[in-house]
């Protein structure tokens, strides 16, 4: 690894080339991110225009400032978020505006008036049972009314209606032109499963090199996966809502159901990877021998995890996950004949448990998966 001194003494040409490579990589990432969100950009742009058009042509409002704002806020939230939250947000915009309109009509605008407007808007939102998003949006919308537009001589409710129109347009566009529900799930599942596979590879490498520090690093990576696992759970729920409340293709329901079945087992596999890492720490710190069959079995688990996204989505040949998981089970069973130390026994137990989780992620029952793992060595002849 280059030291700070080495980097400072590199020729200018090398530094320029390195900076150019980083810039190209960063630009590719930004372009990929834009391509991944193009539908949301289009939805927001079209929604803002339609909300303005509806408020001016149907409601007859000359300057429906809040209609496109409400549409954009609603559409921006529904990309990969829960429908209930989107409804909360659009309602929060409308209610905050309505409350602020009434209050500003009576007391005008200014610093102390904003204090009262925000306090009353948030209090009203809490009283009607709104969640944090609803309460915050009421406050933000009330501030917009109290600061950006002066009070009228009489209450018309036009801005309240504009906000309702914008929110309705946003929800309608989300229903008619929905985000791909499978993309929402895959966007969260693929990085999580790749990280899980890398953690398993790290555990295998630590065992092979007998390196306790590498095993500890694998454990830290394993502990850091919980937020990604929670995001996958949320994405699966969101995907089901998209297919239920929108015109999303119903063919997405099959793969979504497969992910729903798989999720609990994936989460268990994430937890088991941490137990494996702790077993590797113990084995390497005590200098206890872990048979090569067990190390190869951990790598088989990593291969099974990497094959899981394609198999769940139906985009790769079926059987790869099951084959790799059963190979891991067979090799781990064979490893018990090579040593009887406690560390190896713990590692073998976790390999077999993770193999069961991966088989169950494909829809096997618990009894079927355990029987398959138990008979794996005899079937494969390892």
From TrEMBL:
Topology of this chain in the membrane: Multi-pass membrane protein
Intracellular or extracellular location(s): Membrane
Transmembrane domains' residue ranges:
34-55, 61-79, 86-108, 114-146, 158-177
Q: Name one GO cellular component term.
A: membrane
Q: What name is this protein filed under?
A: Integral membrane bound transporter domain-containing protein
Q: What are the record keywords, sorted? A: Membrane, Transmembrane, Transmembrane helix
Q: Where is the Integral membrane bound transporter domain?
A: 51-173
Instruction: Point out the coiled-coil segments of this chain.
Output: none
Q: Which domain of life is it from?
A: Bacteria
